[in-house]
Amino acid sequence: MRSRAIYGCAGMTLGAEERAFFRDVQPFGFILFARNIHDRAQVRALVESLRETVGEARAPVLIDQEGGRVARLKPPGWKERPAAARFGAVYASQHEAGVEAVYLNARLIAHDLAEVGINVDCLPVLDVPVEGADPVIGDRAFARDPSAIIDLGRAQIEGLLEGGVLPIMKHIPGHGRAMADSHHALPRVSTEAEELSATDFVTFRSLDTCPMAMTAHVVYEALDPQRPATTSPKVIRDVIRGEMGFDGLLLSDDLSMNALDGPLSVRTKAALFAGCDIVLHCNGKMAEMVEVASQVKPLDGHALRRAEHALSHLVAPEEFDPAAGEARLTELLSMSA
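Given the sequence above, the corresponding structure tokens read:
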């Protein structure tokens, strides 16, 4: 039986120890980073070898391919894509053009990913940034207006799905107010629950049919002053599953990030106990993956149901002309140049 974890790998090919580990622990899926990327043929071969270890042709293989600062597939092998804020700027002047542009960009990203066998993109970013927040989100967000984020996020989800790639909305229930980068420290948000609900949470609540979501390593003091969302039963039960009504597959953000403390085994157990369906470990360090695996449970019950429902959204890409899409996207982006 597959387990409730997604792991990274160390390099551009799998070593014997990695193959043996993945065959033994049977993770739900895998995630790629820049260290794993050279060219199309190499990525395709790596993806195939990862799936071979679990014997599943559709095993999720994730990547963070947002555009702008966060892109693992880079030039010259792949075309550079704009950051989300670029689409927000088009939307601000012409709503329909902004929506069409973000949809086309998502279709083009999906086309790039599908070419090499990657079937999950960690998009859309639905965080609502505020003045003075840490720049870790910044231009990765579409805008500061929740209604704009909802419209553009919906189009991005549609573009990815129609291109044969599963979207993951992040960072639920919202990273936009964080005054620290959760890669390096634990952010704490002191905003009242009512304001959070009306601004930060509304984007996720409005797009709750997205098949997958990734948690925020952020403490919301009005909800749970002790634990970040990733390890908070209260935030996951009352807000993500309750107020937001999200019943899709819930992934933790990377357990190796410095926002979390304690041994990896404790972090893993806490995230699963809190209500994450799947834990994510990204850095490819074998000793850490072994520690995570020691606490990972089999994929069953509600987590299995949600995983199967998410994977049911994987379809063959609809007919699409990438060259025509590129030309039209260039035209639309020029509207706010």
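The first helix runs from residue 16 to 25. Try to locate this feature in the token string yourself.
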